[in-house]
Amino acid sequence: MKLNLPFKRLLSLFVLLTCFCLASVAQTIKGKIFDSKTGEPLTGATIQLERDGNKQSASGRLDGSYSFQNLQNGTYKLTANFVGYQESKAVLVNITNTNPNAVQNIYLQDLNTQLNEVAVTGQGSKVSDRAARGLEKEATSVMNILSQNAIQLLPDVTVGNALQRISGVTIQRSNTGEGRYAIIRGMDQRYNNTLVNGIKIPSPDDKYRFVPMDIFPSELLERLEVIKSLTPSMEGDAIGGTMNLVMKSAPQQFVLNVNAAAGYSLLFSDRPFSAFNHSGINSKSPAEIYGNDYAATYKDFTTSNLKYHNLSAPVNSQFGLTIGDRFLDKKLGIILSASYQNFYRGSNSDYLVPNAQPALGNTPFFSDALSRQYSTQTTQFGINNKIDYVFDKRNKISLYNFYLHQNEYQTRFTADTVLAINSTSTQKEVDIENRSMLTRQSVYNGTLKGEHQLTDALHLNWTGVYSIAKKEVPDMASYTVEHDVTLNNSRQVIGVDSVLKSMSRRWMHNSDKDLAGYLDLIYNTNIANRDVEFSAGGLYRHKTRTNYDNNYDNFSPFPLGIKQPFTNIDNALFGFASADDGIGNFTTLSANDYTAYENVASEYLQLKFNLLDKLQVIGGVRVESTTDNYNTGLPVSYNQRSGNISYTDVLPSVNFKYALTDIQNLRLSYYKAISRPGFGDIVPILIPGEYFDQEGNPFIKHTRSNNYDFRYELFPGGSDQVLLGGFYKDIYDPIEYFVVRNGGPSAQFIQPQNVNKATNYGLEALVTKFFGSFGVSANYTYTHSRVTTSKLFYGKDGTQTIVDQTRPLQGQADNVGNVSLLFKDNKLGLNMQLAFVYTGERIAQVSPYYNLDYWNRGYGQLDFSFEKTILKKLSFYGKINNLTNTANKVFLKYPHDNIPQSLAIQDTKNETLVEKDLYKISFLGGLRYKF
């Protein structure tokens, strides 16, 4: 792999800094700062050196080390302090010719400050890597955590991209290359749930339950948790794992952080960014304005959103603000965080559209070749607010609110070439489609929580939640021009006849609203000289989901039946063949307009105790009852016009944690979990997609799984850690999306279906180690899943037979890994990270035909980020993504030379490349101020 020039320069800079910091020094005082109780190094502690009234200071590195260099002989006074710890006593250190390099370690005593009987700890402890390691060590279940400090240094600006840095997590990208959904331990995104501060939130997606993670700005987070085993007190719909986004909470002292950045994508140095007029979009369809029976005409539709203009070198921008403090003798805490992003992204994409039925001999065959250019402007605003009030040491209440809003303005230009068997044809049909789409997404969550110590032994927690997620696609507009290209005998173009072909307009919007209540009782007692904690509680959630979809797709060039030469959209004339065509497909007989309800009631019993001095056990059982019902506008005679589904699951779990030493754990766990189908899976709707429409399946069943985990943990101190583990899952009725034929050989759609029992198992390894200012963080996950499904085989004689095929689960990659080279020096005020992520090949789309599944090719991506202090509280930071210009590629495991068609974008003989998406390198640089 050749290294491009920017990467060579960055690598040279990294090597030069390495050489600089490894240079030998003389006359030094060095050592480490430790927690006197745990022995853990204290990252960021302040060390002060004084001699004859002259003072200098240093900060503890990630391994707690410090050093003062180029000192003169003499006696020095050394002190250290750290937020949340008592200041050390002064230590005298002598430097002489016989002792030029003195080593002095310092141990700090933990400080608990009582303010009106309220315990207060240091703010710094919440956001550091050291704090994250402590949470992982003390956790009751298997989890991995990214701290706020780690997230801030990452090259990523959204949670979706940050997730790929966590052990065992891969991401599914959008058509602009941004991470949108997380796959945990090879389990597709449907098998994972998303929490904010421990509370499940609804999804704005029009089909699925899972939440698009690119809607969350990473700078709003205090930490990012991926929980891989469950306890009875946790919701049980997480076969793969749980993503818990812990948002920033009120600090113990005044905090003000401000940042602003700008950047650019190199994609738009090769081609312009295509934009359209946003103001001309009609927010409501003619049917919504005038009633469902209204027969629209062409005059009811604007063309302003189909007029395009180019932007040259559009600038990306990002702004962030966090402000917080405590008032009223530290009883009242308030924090407000806000983020705004305006990014111009895109991709160049080539895609081969498969025929619904392969050629004889089960040979792949393609109907069209699509060449697409995406230009996407994403504006995103997020705000996070938390207020907590401590009445006394027994009673606390908090109110949390967050709101996210994203507007995505996307232009898609598609050149569609009709493919045929190789021939010397002198005619070629190329359709050019221009599409404009605005997608609005929003999520709001309001959580009111109370924590009460009723007696010395009894604790009560209660939570009330209101959440709503919305998605709107108003007036998705497209028009197509047919270009009939005439070629000479040398395959040169000698003529083009361009005529207007079709137009489509679509309005879609949906909402997902949750009302939920949580109640937990915790009772502590002593049995047989052992502390025992009993927990009991539950939740009730009422979900209301609505969906609206109206498509006007029966436009024809006007006058009808006459080919209309195309000049521009202003001169284009369309009409409907009949007045009824102007009503659109939204009628009282539509399944795409539906209302659905879901009630989830769950209760749990949990027991936590130490079976032995070093063996902690947390176990119990959770019962979850689910009731779904939906109503559509389909005729009464249609069997799936409405539906009611109910099921109850008993979900036992147990987690063992054995403390080998103060810094080593062994974990063993078992839990049973479920995955509920989304309403887009159940309701018999037909929703458009980028390449295939998707249809619901009212007969789909929910998935159940038995899950086993084992892990060894070592936390030497600071940011260092070693994690080694394995997992095994038995999965019943897993759900996968199949390409299904619907009528003729070119008619097909995607539908969710249950498959036979599957297994999924693997190994995980993670190592983080710092050597002074330098560190290496690496993780690797091997995953192996198997499921057997029935496939069709289209023989050479034209007969179809059914055969079984064993394959991995959709989305599961055998090999996933991350390697980061880190440099963190508080004295230089410089942090750097060179991060590489690798994801192995995985099935992207399951085919109904034997051995014709679509696979994502394995890829590696290299990113770089840094932050440099330029003044005491002001720093400059930068993020560079996709240094290796990695493309997304999808292929068939079939030699393309054996296909009787001329196919573009091929790069190897043993495979057939069917999709290639290019995103290019992007840059972001800015300033950050911390008070």
Describe this protein with a few key phrases:
globular; 931 residues; single chain; Ferric Hydroxamate Uptake Protein, Chain A, domain 1; Maltoporin, Chain A; Immunoglobulin-like; 6% helix; mainly beta; five-stranded mixed beta sheet; 22-stranded antiparallel barrel
If you consult CATH, what is the topology of the largest domain?
Maltoporin, Chain A
- CATH class category name of the largest domain: Mainly Beta
Question: Spans of 5+ residues with little confidence (pLDDT < 50)?
Answer: 1-25, 112-124
How much helical structure, as a percent, in the residues? under 10%
- Number of structural domains: 3
CATH A-level architecture of the largest domain: Beta Barrel
CATH superfamily membership of the largest domain: TonB-dependent receptor, beta-barrel domain
Strand-pairing-aware structural class: mainly beta
Please state the overall shape, judged from the principal axes of the Cα atoms.
globular
User: How many individual helices?
Assistant: 8
Radius of gyration: 30 Å
Strand percent estimate = over 45%
Largest sheet: 22 strands, antiparallel, barrel
Distance between the termini: 44 Å
Q: Could you give the topology of this structure?
A:
Layout: H1 5-21, E1 28-35, E2 46-51, E3 54-59, E4 65-68, E5 74-81, E6 91-95, E7 101-103, E8 106-108, E9 113-115, E10 118-120, H2 124-127, H3 129-138, E11 143-147, H4 148-153, H5 159-162, E12 169-173, E13 179-184, E14 192-196, E15 199-200, E16 221-227, E17 241-247, E18 255-265, H6 267-270, E19 273-276, H7 286-290, E20 308-311, E21 316-327, E22 332-354, E23 366-392, E24 395-418, E25 427-453, E26 458-487, E27 493-527, E28 530-552, E29 555-557, E30 574-576, E31 594-612, E32 615-632, E33 642-661, E34 664-675, H8 679-682, E35 686-687, E36 693-695, E37 703-717, E38 720-732, E39 735-741, E40 748-754, E41 758-771, E42 774-794, E43 800-807, E44 815-825, E45 830-839, E46 842-845, E47 854-856, E48 859-869, E49 874-881, E50 888-892, E51 912-918, E52 922-930
Parallel strand pairs: 1-7, 1-8, 14-17, 36-40
Antiparallel strand pairs: 1-4, 2-3, 2-5, 5-6, 9-10, 11-16, 12-13, 14-15, 16-17, 18-21, 18-52, 19-20, 21-22, 22-23, 22-51, 23-24, 24-25, 25-26, 26-27, 27-28, 28-31, 29-30, 31-32, 32-33, 33-34, 34-37, 35-36, 37-38, 38-41, 39-40, 41-42, 42-43, 42-44, 44-45, 45-48, 46-47, 47-50, 48-49, 49-52, 50-51
